[in-house]
Amino acid sequence: MTFSDSCSRPEGSSKGAAAADGARTYLIGGNWKANGSVASVEKLIAEFNAAGPIPVNAEVVIGAPFIHIPLCLMSLRKDVEIAAQNCNLTGTGAYTGEVCASQLKEMGVTWVILGHSERREGFGMAGEDSELVAKKTKMALAEGLKVMLCIGEKKEEREAGTTMNVCASQLKPAAAILSKEEWANVSIAYEPVWAIGTGLTATPEMAQETHANIRQWVSDNVGADVASAVRIQYGGSMKGANASGLMGQTDIDGGLIGGASLTKDFFNIINGVPSA
């Protein structure tokens, strides 16, 4: 029994039809980053709880700061899952300041975001390389969490035409240590770094081209069956105004949303999911 099992979260509501057999369900992830006071999170939860039905062919997840995870697990509607924004590599033990996957799982957290560009780059500390991200992904999966594995290129890399070289280098360590069975619990979140928090967004056609190339890489390096099933989220300043155009592309299976997930516009994005 998890902590969340003992909580009386409000019921959600749904609309539309489920994804067809063999079709990928959309994954809409919100990443609150290091934002929110208790008061602002309580207000946002109340807004989300009153925001109406979620499409049946969409899975919705909120990545809350560690400090706000219990509040979300106690009061956010049941049809929105909770993610952590990081977990450690080592498990429980003498690792001051760390939070491990097994602890998150026991709370009732179901997802974790790993390899986000902000953590790869570092913020006043050393960044995380792709080998470390892959090992943390392996640990999280072993403890029963699902993983949004973030990849993406910087502006100068896009301009140099090396987008797929960068994405492949970030995926390669994970491909080397994850089994096909483990990939069933991994989503790839493609986040062009130049579009995160800048207001810049790849056109739907630009995003589709990169998503298709990522799926082809997975097919070539992991397996065609995994490539067909894996969800690839877009994470570059998706908002209500552009969500339907982006998710209408063949290989874009949802989004990982930053700023807009802290507002009621998050549900405009959810409602932009194409009908099954």
List key phrases describing it.
276 residues; alpha/beta; two-stranded parallel sheet; 16% strand; globular
Ordered list of secondary-structure elements with their pairings:
Elements (H helix, E strand, L loop, with lengths): L13 E2 L10 E6 L6 H12 L4 E2 L2 E6 L5 H7 L4 E5 L16 H7 L3 E4 L2 H5 L8 H13 L3 E6 L3 H5 L3 H15 L2 H4 L2 E5 L13 H18 L2 H6 L2 E3 L8 H5 L6 E4 L7 H6 L6
Parallel strand pairs: 1-3, 2-4, 2-10, 4-5, 5-6, 6-7, 7-8, 8-9
Describe the structure.
With 276 residues, this protein is of the alpha/beta class. It is built from 12 helices and 10 strands. The chain has helices at 38-49, 69-75, 101-107, 117-121, 130-142, 155-159, 163-177, 180-183, 204-221, 224-229, 243-247, 265-270; strands at residues 14-15, 26-31, 54-55, 58-63, 80-84, 111-114, 146-151, 186-190, 232-234, 254-257. The longest helix has 18 residues, at 204-221. 41% of the residues are buried.
